[in-house]
């Protein structure tokens, strides 16, 4: 029993008879026995694009009752959140095969990471065991490399400079293995005269190619305006917008007309992986590859745009 006398903490009392002064002392009971709880199964995206339902079983005990009362109000909730956050961050960095083959090793690493946080609360986790409930979506990567459906082939044609005109002119379609990053070049100032047009940046080509897939149904579902601050390989930053608030939606270069609901910071490589469905918005946010300024729930509605591409 932890006793507070006129607001000052005293030496832990008990077990047994404890004398309390009415109106002067207040107390809080602390159970020093080992307790357990379950982290409810949650959906996580692995490094290779698989979607898993993963939970965990955790056993813990309080070794310092004074710290447990003074530092944290609700130990059960705080420990559960710490375990869930550590589990999410750890699994985002591993493929499905690693999670299935090295489950015990991952559990031991999580145990150490959680204890680094909870020791300051007077609490120690004795056991942590992962439980993979189900594989909701298989990995997107295969030994032969990622494949592109017809939509992604059109995207690849667009940002590699071919466009639909190259298809009409008889140029061969790009195969699954031809998708690659194109080096960013500085666009010269517009001028009058004949000559080849400069190579289109990867980010601009990818985002501009979204226009045919925008619709009134998508605008009704999302109803938000996004600003993308894309960091190019050269270290410079380009700004693009995706406005899904009116009509059939618009996408283009520069800042939107009004104030965006969400501002997203990401690299050009991560933007390509996002639009090619090699990276999920939630997984990118949890791993720090996608930085969001604004309402996170609105930012996660980008998943609807990706489904439209599919």
UniProtKB/TrEMBL annotation:
Signal peptide positions on this chain: none
Protein name: Stomatin-like protein 1 isoform X2
Domain of life per record: Eukaryota
InterPro entries, sorted: Band-7_stomatin-like, Band_7, Band_7/SPFH_dom_sf, SCP2_sterol-bd_dom, SCP2_sterol-bd_dom_sf, Stomatin_HflK_fam
Residue ranges that the Swiss-Prot or TrEMBL entry lists as coiled coil: none
CDD domains, alphabetized: SPFH_SLP-1
Band domain location: 1-155
